[in-house]
Each structure stands twice: as structure tokens, then as C-alpha cells.
Amino acid sequence: MDKYLVFGNPIKQSRSPNIHRAFADSTNQLIEYDRQLSQVDQFENDVKAFFAQGGKGANVTAPFKEQALLLSDKLTDRAKLAEAVNTLSYIDGKIYGDNTDGIGLVQDLLRHNVVLKSSNILILGAGGAAKGVILPILEQEPVRVVIANRTVSKAEKICHQFDSFSDKKLHACGFDNLQDGRFDIIINATSASLSGQFPAIPSSNITDSTVCYDMVYGATLTPFLQWAEQQGAAKVIDGLGMLVGQAAESFNIWRKVNPDVESVLKTLRAEMSTAL
Ligand code: NDP
């Protein structure tokens, strides 16, 4: 049976094994998928040992995505640009690194019938998650993408990195410089929700046609999505679909089969609400 793992620290909370086992059941694929706790100074050895013992692929979550990039023999363009790898495949003695987070987000938005083409998009945050979604978002041909971050220099750095792909559509600023903006889509890619906070953006950024997305998810609406709803946003969406979507893309890379995202998402959502 082909073996897969997710590496992270902490890793107990990871839902990836449940998601991939559900994908495997629904597509009749015989696989084993487990979680493995690793350490920064052990990660590379752990990955190599797993592949040496016959492992076929692995997902990588915080804090190892940059290390996974460095140990990959070959990288996709989207992984190179994101400077992070969340999907490793082992083929003929070589480690292939990819990043499926961005496509997971875009597919989740499309599944909610959110139109990205020609839209005016605000991304809050300039960490690894924000960087990972820029290329897949640009590929959807938005009219403008503004990256706003608490530390403005990090947003500027991303704009610079994506300069040759962005056709001058990408802009960087701080939250204070958003006074005059109105956006079709606002994506919260900060980790503020994890500490019960949300980025201090002007309420005028949200209109009754704005879709607000938070990469963080939980049994209840995140603080950002609660606030966005109060400001009259057209739709609020959390990041559970992005999680399942990135997993589906990894599964497809490994097994060459497209699993059904919707049914797994429904099960996870139900499990989360009964755990309340
Ligand atoms: P990083 O640590 O790389 O970046 C964190 C970002 O959040 C930075 O831009 C930081 O700003 C900003 N930030 C943190 N706290 C605050 C605050 N109180 N107010 C305003 N900005 C704040 O994290 P990642 O980019 O890797 O992840 C971001 C979030 O996305 C995480 O919560 C993660 O769980 C989630 N995520 C969800 C995924 C999914 O599948 N649903 C996939 C990947 C990530 P500054 O630069 O100024 O410090």
C-alpha cells in the first residue's frame, strides 16, 4: 500500500489524514496516510528517511514549508514563487516540491461562485500564506490586487518579487492607506484571527457586494468575518474549503485522480459543529 505523511509541529491538530483517507475511500485508492511530528533540526532527515523506506509523498505544514522548498530536487514555478512547499512527491529517487495552497483558495472561491476575473482584490497579510496565493490569483486576471500588511515592507517585497508576473496590477500598502478603497473581494491572509483579532482596515473597504474570505477557519465565524458581516459584506467564507482544496490538489498530484471536495467539506463542517 502506498504511504503518505503530513509533517508539522504541532501536528496533532492536523485534519489532513482524515481528508486524504476520505478522498482515498471515495476514489477507491489504497493508501496509508499518517501524521508525523518533526523538529527543525530533524525535518530533512525525517523526510529522506520516509522516502528511503518507500514513502510516496508528503504534505508539509508549519513551520517546515521553507525547509521543504530547500530540500526539493525539483520545484514547480508556483512553489518557487511562493518560496514554500506544502506537497512533496518522491519519484525515481528525486524529491519534487509543489505548493497547492493558492490553487486551493482560488478553487474554493470559484466553488462559491466568486468572480475573480476583472475584480478588485485586497489581500491582508504578507506572510507565507499570502505569498502562496498571489500567482494563482493573478492567473484569474483580476483588474487590481492590493497587498496590505501591518509591516508594509513585507508587502512591498512581495510586489517586487512578483513584478514580472503582475502586469502592474499588484500594489502594496499599510492598513492606514486603504481609506479610499472599495473592493470586490477581501482575503484575510493574516493569522490575526488565531488571537481573536482582525486587521484594522476601514469599514468603507466593504460594500454590499464585497466577498470577504478568511484563511483561518473554525466552528464559529472568525473575528474578521463577524466584523465583515456587520459591515454588510455580501458573503463571508472561511478557509476550510481552502484546506480541503489544497489537499485535493495534492491528492491529484500523487494519485492522478480528482477527489470530490464537497462531500469531505460537508463531513468536516459537521464534525466541527458537533465538537462545539
Ligand atoms: P505568517 O506567520 O507567515 O504571516 C502572518 C501574517 O499575519 C503576517 O502578515 C503578519 O503581519 C500578520 N498578522 C499577524 N497578527 C496580526 C494582527 N494582529 N494584525 C494584523 N496582522 C497580523 O503566517 P502564514 O502566512 O503562514 O499564515 C497566515 C494564516 O493563514 C494562518 O492563520 C494560517 O493558519 C492560515 N492558513 C490557512 C490555510 C488553509 O488551508 N485554510 C493554508 C495556509 C495558511 P506582520 O508581517 O506585520 O507580522
TrEMBL record:
One of its GO terms (biological process) is chorismate biosynthetic process. Its EC number is 1.1.1.25. Residues 115-193 form the Quinate/shikimate 5-dehydrogenase/glutamyl-tRNA reductase domain. InterPro entries: Aminoacid_DH-like_N_sf (IPR046346), NAD(P)-bd_dom_sf (IPR036291), SDH_C (IPR041121), Shikimate_DH (IPR011342), Shikimate_DH-bd_N (IPR013708), Shikimate_DH_fam (IPR022893), Shikm_DH/Glu-tRNA_Rdtase (IPR006151). It catalyses: shikimate + NADP(+) = 3-dehydroshikimate + NADPH + H(+). It holds the Pfam family Shikimate_dh_N. NADP(+) binds at residues 77, 125-129, 149-154, 215, 239. Residues 6-88 form the Shikimate dehydrogenase substrate binding N-terminal domain. Gene3D superfamilies: Leucine Dehydrogenase, chain A, domain 1, NAD(P)-binding Rossmann-like Domain. SUPFAM superfamilies: Aminoacid dehydrogenase-like, N-terminal domain, NAD(P)-binding Rossmann-fold domains. Shikimate binds at residues 14-16, 61, 86, 101, 217, 246. The active site is at 65 (proton acceptor). Residues 239-269 form the SDH C-terminal domain. GO terms for cellular component: cytosol. Keywords: Amino-acid biosynthesis, Aromatic amino acid biosynthesis, NADP, Oxidoreductase. Pathway: Metabolic intermediate biosynthesis; chorismate biosynthesis; chorismate from D-erythrose 4-phosphate and phosphoenolpyruvate: step 4/7. The keyword NAD does not apply. PANTHER family: BIFUNCTIONAL 3-DEHYDROQUINATE DEHYDRATASE_SHIKIMATE DEHYDROGENASE, CHLOROPLASTIC (PTHR21089:SF1), SHIKIMATE DEHYDROGENASE (PTHR21089). Belongs to the shikimate dehydrogenase family. Homodimer. Involved in the biosynthesis of the chorismate, which leads to the biosynthesis of aromatic amino acids. Catalyzes the reversible NADPH linked reduction of 3-dehydroshikimate (DHSA) to yield shikimate (SA). This is Shikimate dehydrogenase (NADP(+)). It comes from Litorilituus lipolyticus. The gene is aroE.
